[in-house]
Each structure stands twice: as structure tokens, then as C-alpha cells.
């Protein structure tokens, strides 16, 4: 059962919830940024510079917290987030390494409204993915 602030115990981490949390580019950026920070680094939620309003930022950090990826602590009129590095590594070994190795390079972020990544080719007009010939239709 999650604690009073909504942080699940490590045994309660759900892989699908973690994947859902990481599926959003902004949340992925937060985790990839924290992975590169020293152990136990705490950052305020506003320090990530997410291009969203306060309520949307709160929503993103709630998803990260409920998935077990961050621990949030109240600091007066703001909240700090800390990566639950040891818990994540215990439950899903290697996941954080993959996150760190697969974040888009600076300037190539696939953030909402940023358009396609440089060099990305648009899908053909017929909607068929390149190399998908012969695959059964969904």
C-alpha cells in the first residue's frame, strides 16, 4: 500500500505504470536528468523548466511519484523530487541505464509542439511504415 504521500513500496512497483510514466517525453526528460545527477540529488519541480503550466507540471510529477520513480518532499511552498534510484534498480535492474542512454540529445528533444526530430522522415501518404511490408495489418 502506498504511503500517505502516494509513494508505493518497491514491491508494489508496476512495470506497466513505470512504462506509462516514461512514455511522456517531459516525464522521460525529468527521469533522464535525475539519472545523470549525483545520488540523492533533490530538485524542485520547477527547476526542470518544463514548458507547461503549474497544474500540468503537478500532474506529471504525480504520475512519476505514483509509478515509484521519484520521491517528493514538501519544502514550504514548493516540492522537491528525488529519483528512487536504489528502489528502481532493485525492482527493474538496468532500467535507469537504458533511460540515460536513450534520451534525445540536447536540441533534438521530441517535446510536444517541437515538431519532428531533425532528419526524421515523414510517413508515406499511404500510412505504411518503411520496412513493414508483409506484416499483418492490425
UniProtKB/TrEMBL annotation:
Biased composition (Low complexity): 122-138
Residues covered by region (Disordered): 103-138
Domain HTH arsR-type: 7-103
Gene3D superfamilies listed in its UniProt record: Winged helix-like DNA-binding domain superfamily/Winged helix DNA-binding domain
InterPro entries cross-referenced by the UniProt entry: ArsR-like_HTH, HTH_ArsR_DNA-bd_dom, WH-like_DNA-bd_sf, WH_DNA-bd_sf
CDD domains reported in the protein's UniProt record: HTH_ARSR
Protein name: Helix-turn-helix transcriptional regulator
Originating species: Streptomyces evansiae
